[in-house]
Design a protein that fits this description.
Blueprint (H helix, E strand, L loop, with lengths): L17 H31 L6 H29 L7 H35 L9 H19 L9 E4 L4 E4 L6 H40 L5 H36 L7 H23 L3 H11 L20
Antiparallel strand pairs: 1-2
Length: about 325
């Protein structure tokens, strides 16, 4: 199996011990199980409570669907394959299918993060004046995230680029290691349009958002401390959003760019696997940061998880759609 699908794990490296694979399986399980539970909870409570079916929440639910798909495919398969003897019973067809599905879900989730950033910027900063974000805009943004992801993950199925084993050889992804000019051109486009563009949108949107909140706070802070405290809370939330984005995806994108720039660089299979696992951890980071720090979703999701029990009583009403918290 390992000789039929060349990748970073096969360039003369010694066979990793079964203990290492079992440890990777356990780590992936610790991420995958809560990811499935939390993302499924977001979808379930949205279907159950129509109060949550608001335009700005469409993107949050879309991200939960994409993250749930990534956890059920890449996450579950990562747990199983690392724990099985032989570690990668994928075969060529299985590698392509796994690499394609995980990449589609992952890039859709990544694009949805950028969509959320744009939504919040439009709602709070009003760069288009009294623009009202409606259901049709939310639906269009969700559809675009899926079409964009499909559009850039389909080419390897038709000869432009390809999917290959990565890291320790128990998962597949676009082939960063190929020296074929066609594959390199695909990877460069993929990195620019599926990583760099979403990141630029996130930084620009949240930068504008923070600047607007800062300007508003300066005008009213002398009248009371509530506005300044709100700005600090939003700033903390935004910083956490950007940090989780960077922690989850930048190591993976940076490793890919390094390999494309210098195909002869040596990266051990175990080291190459760490960015892969960090990217997969984003399926757990997202529902925690974007959903459970949102009071509106939290007020429904926590009782759902605890079978109706409420561990606290909210002092405030669930946040409205025009707030940023």
């Amino acid at each position: 199996m390992r000789s039929s699908l060349p990748n970073a794990a096969q360039d003369g490296d010694p066979q990793l011990s079964d203990g290492v694979y079992l440890a990777l399986s356990a780590i992936m399980a610790l991420v995958t199980v809560p990811s499935i539970v939390l993302n499924a909870t977001v979808i379930a409570v949205t279907l159950k409570h129509k109060q949550l079916r608001q335009p700005l929440n469409y993107a949050l639910v879309n991200m939960a669907v994409a993250d749930l798909g990534a956890a059920l495919t890449g996450g579950v398969l990562g747990v199983v394959f690392n724990a099985m003897p032989g570690h990668a019973p994928l075969g060529r067809t299985g590698c392509v299918v796994e690499g394609f599905t995980v990449s589609v879900f992952g890039i859709t989730s990544l694009c949805t993060v950028a969509l959320i950033a744009l939504e919040r910027m439009f709602v709070v900063c009003k760069p288009l004046g009294q623009f009202l974000f409606q259901m049709k805009h939310a639906a269009a943004g969700v559809a675009l995230s899926w079409l964009w992801s499909l559009g850039w993950n389909l080419p390897p199925l038709f000869g432009w680029g390809r999917y290959e084993l990565e890291g320790v050889g128990t998962s597949c992804a676009p082939d960063w290691h190929s020296r074929d000019p066609s594959t390199i051109s695909y990877i460069l486009c993929y990195l620019c349009l599926c990583f760099a563009v979403p990141f630029a949108l996130i930084v620009a949107s949240y930068g504008k958002l923070l600047w607007t909140l800062h300007q508003v706070s300066r005008k009213v802070c002398l009248e009371g401390g509530a506005s300044a405290q709100a700005e600090i809370k939003v700033a903390r939330m935004v910083v956490l959003m950007v940090l989780t984005f960077l922690m989850g995806w930048m190591p993976y994108a940076s490793m890919a760019m390094l390999v494309v720039y210098n195909p002869d660089v040596y990266i051990s299979p175990l080291v190459a696997t760490l960015p892969v696992y960090l990217a997969k951890c984003s399926t757990l980071f997202n529902p925690i940061v974007y959903i459970f720090l949102n009071k509106q979703f939290r007020s429904y999701a926590v009782p759902f998880l605890l079978c109706g029990k409420k561990p606290w009583i909210e002092d405030e009403e669930p946040e409205t759609q025009t707030t940023v918290e």
